[in-house]
Amino acid sequence: LIHTSGLPRDLPVSLWHASASLKEARWSWLGGTRLRHVPGRVAEYSNAGWIFLGDAMEHASRRSYPAMLKLHLESTLPGSRMTLDPSPAQCARLLSAAAPACEQGFATAPSWGLYATTGDVGAWMQRLMRAQPGSALQFSLQPVVQRSALGAVRTLDFAGRAEALG
């Protein structure tokens, strides 16, 4: 979850054309994959890591990732229009320099971002800032690993130096 798994950034392109389902193909691939580094020592963004985390969440909850996300959003931000799957009308309003790609990515949904309105993002940020001390939400905002405890941090400093991961 905090990108210290040692998995590569992305799944191999060859998996997308596998004869088995994408989920079966990626788990088969994982069994023969050599990690890029020892888990917990190097922080590096990994879409592959998020996809496997999503698979684990689906298995543990016995729900699809989109269904889990929808339940979470409805319970934390009632009325939110955040979605993995924007309608054609929502796609037409996306801010983008080029024509936005509004494709369903449910097979890799945990590594995709959410489509959201500025109002929904603002509401989410306000909710984070008002998290009650001792609550699960407040606990989730605490650093898990300090940068000084890692051997290296790669591809995570785009918005400024990351001092900790959470």
Description:
With 166 residues, this protein is mainly alpha-helical. It has helices at 22-31, 47-61, 65-76, 88-92, 118-129, 136-140, and strands at residues 42-44, 145-146, 152-154, 164-165. It has 6 helices and 4 strands. The radius of gyration is 18 Å and the shape is globular. The N and C termini lie close together (8 Å). The model has no long low-confidence stretch (mean pLDDT 85).
Structural class: mainly alpha
- Strand segment tally: 4
For the record, give the distance between the C-alpha atoms at the N and C termini, rounded to a whole number. Answer: 8 Å
Mean of residue pLDDT values:
85
Low-confidence stretches: none
Element-level helix/strand string? HEHHHHHEEE
C-alpha-based Rg, rounded: 18 Å
Beta-strand content bin:
5-15%
Question: Helical segment tally?
Answer: 6
Largest sheet features: 2 strands, parallel
Which helices and strands, and how do they pair?
Elements: H1 22-31, E1 42-44, H2 47-61, H3 65-76, H4 88-92, H5 118-129, H6 136-140, E2 145-146, E3 152-154, E4 164-165
Parallel strand pairs: 1-3
Antiparallel strand pairs: 2-4
Task: Tell me briefly what this model is.
This protein has about 170 residues and is mainly alpha-helical. The chain has helices spanning about 20-30, 45-60, 65-75, 90, 120-130, 135-140; strands at about 40-45, 145, 150-155, 165.
